[in-house]
Specification:
Length: about 210
């Protein structure tokens, strides 16, 4: 109830993104599919309540422009980051990491436009360093690149959705990858902290146990 009241009274002043109307009989998840907002998997509909809740994970203003996202070089505000974070399944506490990952991806030296335009199946790797990785519950141990951890899985997915929905990097259009790769949105892991006893040993053991190609 509190979230609905906040969205009703503060949403009009804090949120600037265009609203989409759809019939009450329509499934909002299917509406997201029909409008091309997904990466092929279901997304969480970004209602005003959810977006305002996501924005509580950062002190940055919703209208602050983080950067221009290729290939269309569209301006991406903190609000748009929050919208895509909601759709990806992020928690508000993931916002600082997602914003940092987006800013890193938009650095000219990273050449995100080139990564999209190539026909090769390239994808970004996000490595999170510092106490925040532990704070938001990232997995740095066994199966770090696999399923099962919300932070590891959704931060990369949110970045991919931002490129898709804000930048216009759609597969088969600006995204020219011939085969593509699942690592486009799942290759996220924290750097193992040297202050945690045994953590490096477990990581090395996991690497040794992995089958060689």
């Amino acid at each position: 109830m509190a979230e609905r009241l906040e969205a009703k009274h503060r949403g009009k002043t804090l949120l600037a993104a265009r609203k989409i109307d759809y019939p009450d009989s329509a499934d909002p998840v299917e509406v997201c599919y029909e409008r091309g907002w997904t990466d092929g998997l279901p997304v969480t509909p970004p209602t005003d309540e959810r977006v305002l809740g996501m924005l509580k994970g950062t002190t940055r203003r919703p209208d602050e422009v983080v950067g221009k996202v290729p290939p269309f070089l569209a301006g991406c505000t903190v609000e748009k980051v929050a919208i895509n974070a909601v759709m990806a399944g992020c928690k508000p506490s993931f916002m600082p990491v997602l914003l940092a990952a987006l800013e890193a991806a938009l650095e000219p030296v990273f050449t995100l436009h080139g990564l999209l335009a190539t026909t090769y199946f390239s994808g970004p790797i996000i490595i999170v360093n510092g106490p925040i990785a532990r704070k938001i519950g990232m997995n740095s141990g066994l199966n770090a690149l696999g399923q099962g951890n919300r932070a590891n899985a959704t931060i990369g997915r949110a970045l991919n959705l931002i490129v898709l929905n804000v930048g216009g990097g759609r597969p088969g259009e600006a995204d020219r990858a011939t085969l593509g790769a699942p690592s486009n949105s799942r290759c996220v892991l924290p750097r193992t902290s040297p202050t945690r006893n045994g953590s490096r040993c477990r990581w090395r053991a996991a690497c040794r146990a992995a089958p060689r190609p």
